[in-house]
Amino acid sequence: MNLELFKHVYFRLPRLIRIILTLLLAMLLFGVTIHLIEPQTFPTIFDGIWWAFVTGSTVGYGDYIPLTRLGRIIAILLILTGGGLITFYITVFAASIVQHERNLSDGKVAYKGNHHIILVGWNERTKILIDRTIQHSPKTEIVLIDQSLSYLSYQLYKIHFIHGDPTDDYYLQMANIQEASKVIITADNERDEKQADNHSILTTVAIRGNNKRIPIIVEILSTNQIDNAIRAGATTILRPNDFMSSLLYHEIFKNKSRPFESVLQLLASQQFRQYKLPEAYHYQPFIEVLYALQKTNHLLIGIIRDEKWILNPDKETILQPEDIVLTLISWD
């Protein structure tokens, strides 16, 4: 039973751990044996173990040398055994490093960090998002979950890739969804709009089931699926079709302006902030609050009142305590 228990535990250990344990046990055995055979040459067990490691690795300092015939036979066995074990250890260790790097690129390694951002879906939008995130916040850890992508070079993209279905709890747990700070779900370009939205909503349900509090940003293509995404647990809904339609409208009817380039430059250098109107500005005219916020590098562009967005209101508009102010502030 003891032997079977040993085999049950030993052969289920990772290969590298097994080799290290075998190497340590072999050196310990040879060290104790040489100490017992030649106690005068090897006064302590540690001296014997030291000699075993030095001899087995073929370094051979020569500070301890067996003098008896039996001791030298033990040394020969040690050279044959130890040299093979150490060579095998180095080979397996190097192979395990290469295999681990390959597994990272194949998306087979679970993520162990926390406070990371999880991206769902690999497309041009996520590529740009990754580049901008690394540029503005290089310390931010990013985990990508994608089913269609089978390989992503770990050296070229400084993110952690997981190959799998984001609607499956197993792959969400591999991404350490419980410790993540935010999730962004992008629409699948390979599906039609309805299928893409259904998959995004199903992914939202799976994520919300694993983490009740995490913010989930979802890209929804069809307007009639927005309510379903909210019911599924989405925190923020992105509507790319509405956004692009508005830009196209401005491009068609523009008056010597470049709205598309203007929006890109704005989003690249500035970020939107919205927060409850500070008490100090209650019942103050819009123009006075604008001047006051400019001193803190916040550009006031409008307010949200009764769930209605009022951009660039009349300068004499009186701000109310329940108003939400909309401002622009530099990324820096």
Structural class: alpha/beta
- Counted by DSSP, the helix tally is 11
**Amino- and carboxy-terminal Cα gap:** 66 Å
Largest sheet: 6 strands, parallel
Report what the structure shows.
With 332 residues, the protein is α/β, with parallel strands linked by helices. It has helices at residues 2-10, 15-37, 45-56, 69-106, 124-136, 169-174, 193-210, 226-232, 240-252, 259-269, 286-294; strands at 117-120, 142-146, 160-163, 182-185, 216-219, 236-238, 270-276, 299-305, 308-311, 324-330. It has a six-stranded parallel sheet with strand order 3-2-1-4-5-6. The chain has a four-stranded antiparallel sheet with strand order 7-10-8-9. Strand 5, helix 8 and strand 6 (236-238) form a beta-alpha-beta unit. Helix 2 (15-37) crosses helix 3 (45-56) and helix 3 (45-56) crosses helix 4. The mean pLDDT is 86.
Can you give keywords for this protein?
332 residues, alpha/beta, six-stranded parallel sheet, four-stranded antiparallel sheet, 11 helices, 15% strand, elongated
Describe the secondary structure blueprint for this structure.
Blueprint: H1 2-10, H2 15-37, H3 45-56, H4 69-106, E1 117-120, H5 124-136, E2 142-146, E3 160-163, H6 169-174, E4 182-185, H7 193-210, E5 216-219, H8 226-232, E6 236-238, H9 240-252, H10 259-269, E7 270-276, H11 286-294, E8 299-305, E9 308-311, E10 324-330
Parallel strand pairs: 1-2, 1-4, 2-3, 4-5, 5-6
Antiparallel strand pairs: 7-10, 8-9, 8-10
